[in-house]
């Protein structure tokens, strides 16, 4: 198996794992404070990451890597989880998942700015078409219904795209699972401190679905998914493999309908099919 194919397979596995993030967050945020959920998931994942680094005796990152690790931590450890948790107080997970269709474009842009990639002009056409379909969906739904939720999701997409591209660039030198692990460890002291501040007075009223949501976003969304995702981006190319995120709404909508019994409109399905169709064209012209 060549490096590019291996990267696409790893990236696909990462996307499948990430597809459960917003439904799981929706379950958890119904009973957990969004700030506590954000820092708790990062703290749990950070403790696990620290254990992995110690067990496998990984070398500490160079001082020159700390800026990049800080960007990764700010984008995917703090920024995206917090912004999506806040957004899900105003919109359903099915509505928010479609915004994830904007992530490939954001990732590709930061792949050019931070990763030095240069996709062909036709790539941008397909990437823009997918993003336009998502933006059109949001406008058709009526941004006035929940402008705060939609703006929070857009902000989440921007910081996440930066975190993806920065982490992928760093993965080329220190490894994919090491990048997310060190980013989690770097933010661990702050996450533990804030977790203590926002710790609920009692957990007696927290149901099993919320606990399962917290477990999923802590273990899979925050750690395991990134092991595959950063490896995929590093091997297959940030802009190219990043287009796999166009598949994430499809898996996420299915999970939202199945697990949360949220309505999935025909328009959501049409938009999802449209953005999925764009991934084939974007992949062809990514390099």
Automatic annotation (TrEMBL):
Record keywords, A-Z: Membrane, Transmembrane, Transmembrane helix
Residues spanning the membrane: 7-29, 35-55, 67-88, 94-113, 122-145, 151-167, 179-199, 211-230, 237-260, 266-286
Main location: membrane
Superkingdom of the organism of origin: Bacteria
Cross-referenced InterPro entries: AA-Vitamin_Transporters, EamA_dom, EmrE-like
Membrane topology: Multi-pass membrane protein
Pfam family, one: EamA
Compartment(s): Membrane
Residue ranges of every copy of the EamA domain listed in the record: 6-136, 149-280
Family membership: Belongs to the EamA transporter family.
PANTHER family: EAMA DOMAIN-CONTAINING PROTEIN (PTHR32322:SF2), INNER MEMBRANE TRANSPORTER (PTHR32322)
Name the UniProt record assigns to this protein: DMT family transporter
Organism: Kaistia terrae
Source lineage: Bacteria, Pseudomonadati, Pseudomonadota, Alphaproteobacteria, Hyphomicrobiales
């Amino acid at each position: 198996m060549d490096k590019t194919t291996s990267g696409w397979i790893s990236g696909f596995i990462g996307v499948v794992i990430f597809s459960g993030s917003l439904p799981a967050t929706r379950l958890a945020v119904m009973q957990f404070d969004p700030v506590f959920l954000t820092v708790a998931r990062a703290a749990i994942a950070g403790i696990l990451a620290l254990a992995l680094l110690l067990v496998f005796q990984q070398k500490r990152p160079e001082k020159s890597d700390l800026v990049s690790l800080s960007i990764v931590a700010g984008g995917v450890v703090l920024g995206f989880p917090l912004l999506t948790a806040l957004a899900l107080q105003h919109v359903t997970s099915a509505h928010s998942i479609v915004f994830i269709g904007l992530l490939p474009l954001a990732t590709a842009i930061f792949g050019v700015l931070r990763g030095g990639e240069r996709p062909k002009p036709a790539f941008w056409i397909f990437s823009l078409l997918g993003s336009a379909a998502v933006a059109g969906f949001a406008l058709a739904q009526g941004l006035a219904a929940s402008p705060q939720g939609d703006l929070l999701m857009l902000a989440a997409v921007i910081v996440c795209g930066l975190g993806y591209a920065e982490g992928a660039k760093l993965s080329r030198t220190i490894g994919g699972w090491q990048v997310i692990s060190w980013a989690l460890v770097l933010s661990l002291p702050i996450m533990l401190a804030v977790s203590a501040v926002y710790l609920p007075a009692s957990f007696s009223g927290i149901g099993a679905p919320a606990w399962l949501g917290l477990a999923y976003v802590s273990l899979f969304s925050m750690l395991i998914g990134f092991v595959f995702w950063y490896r995929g981006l590093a091997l297959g190319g940030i802009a190219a493999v990043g287009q796999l995120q166009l598949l994430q709404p499809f898996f996420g909508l299915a999970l939202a309908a199945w697990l949360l019994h949220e309505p999935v409109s025909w328009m959501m399905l049409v938009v999802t099919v449209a953005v999925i169709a764009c991934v084939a064209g974007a992949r062809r012209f990514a390099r």
